[in-house]
Amino acid sequence: MTKNINKLIVVFLGLLTFSCTQKFDEMNTNPVEPTEIPPNMAIGNMLVNGNIAEWSRYQQAFTLYSSLYSQYFANTTNYFSSGRYIMNLGWIDYGYFRTQYWESTRMYDDIKSYSEKYPGYDNHYWIARIQYELSSARTTDQIGDMPYTEGGRGTDYPKYDSQEFIYNSVLAGLDSAYTMLGNFTDQPSYGSEDVIYGGDIQKWKQLANSLMLRYAIRVSKVDPDLGRKYGTMALQRDLISSNTDNASVLTDPHSYMRGHPLFEVAWWNEFRMSRTMQKQLTETSSNLTDPRMYLLFAKVEHNDVNEETLQSYIKLNEEGRLTDFTYMQNRNDEDLYTVSFYKGVENGLPANEIPALGNNPGDNSNIGPMFNNNSRYIVMNYAEVCFLKAEAAYLGWGGNAEASYEEGIRASWDFLTSLSETQNFLSGADPAKMDIDTYISGLPTFSGHEIENIQTQKWIANYPDGCEAWAEVRRTGYPELMPVKQNDSGINLTNGFIKKLPYTESEITINAKNALDPKNNQGQGDGIDVSVWWDVD
């Protein structure tokens, strides 16, 4: 009898389970949650977060990593150690992996699916494709081989694609976007939802082609044929041709986390101008300090400085550590002084040295007049295109290298001096310090030092894009960075500098088979002393 009852119970539970599981998907589906997202609702998120243009991601991607390693900035707080090459994998995950897979890939796939299902969204798709390829190139530049075809697309253990494969796909995608955009003249674009170009198809075509030139140059050493193929193609088409074409994200300080991200984080005293940046701005021209310095960075000013502290600043100035150093006695107390100067701090200072006079954030230059909370966030500018054309000419792809190089410097200066943010400073500035022609006339001879000259000026003009600057420093070796004061990674780095960011903890633990594959990164595996594909020197 007991056995029969038990059998009935088993049968009943089985039927109940079958009945429940038949409706499980229905029960666990939110009836008001959209199953597809129209492109207009997805593109804003993709353009903002895909370009790391909100402050929390920006801090973890740029000011704690790439902007330190490109030496635009140096760390000035002793509670962050990424400047000394101690890796926080959570920051890398949030700044780069989540940006790539949660924002760029997910939004791109939603827009792609929608455009395939409904007619009239081709322009929407190709604009999203440009942003997706830009985001993908930026991410692989920082971390090397990565999940590209399967990452963020529902695969439990996405495979890692080689950077060579990714770059070939990125270049082909940008080529297709340039070709296809504008073929659908009867279709609308995003309009005001496009926070970069306001739906202007022609400007998106120019950006696609300019990015193609950027990445053709990027691969020109490791794969000269691939670089030449896409580089010469780009030079024959429409490029960003003036500062009015610059690609930049519209910021909104009245929306949560949508003010200019660098401006938002600059006041937390975590970083300041690097010593490398100071030297490049003050020593590159034999005639004049680079006038852009006064717009890129702020002057340090201290009131009520006593005699002992004044002598310490005078000593720093005698050592060549201060730029435009001045001091004067206070009117009301002759025992106190007011001092002012520009200064950069060394990268990788030991934590116990950061609070010292001359090293702390109060003694080094913060961001300058070119930034405000509602400044546009630059994605790619005309000056960079000029320097890309200069290198392309040097490689024999056509054009005049020196003319494009000089045009890039002037384009950078013209952009900075056209900003509404800089007008107040310029109105009171010493004209003798603002003479770009005098600065250019004192630059090193171009012939025989072409790549060093081009890359140094591109590095300055691309500020504060630390991702792009760090990629180009690794590719070319210019400008020459100063040694990091202390490496706490425990790894004996080949040339003293980190070469790429490591994979995140979640990848190492969950997707270990692919993330820890020793065939990754040209058989080098993973690590901070591992070169990415295009870094062949």
From TrEMBL:
Keyword annotations: Signal
One Pfam family named in its UniProt record: SusD-like
First and last residue of the signal peptide: 1-23
InterPro entries recorded: SusD-like, TPR-like_helical_dom_sf
Coiled coil: none
Keyword Acyltransferase: no
Keyword Ubl conjugation annotated: no
Top-rank lineage group of the source organism: Bacteria
Protein name stated in the entry: SusD/RagB family nutrient-binding outer membrane lipoprotein
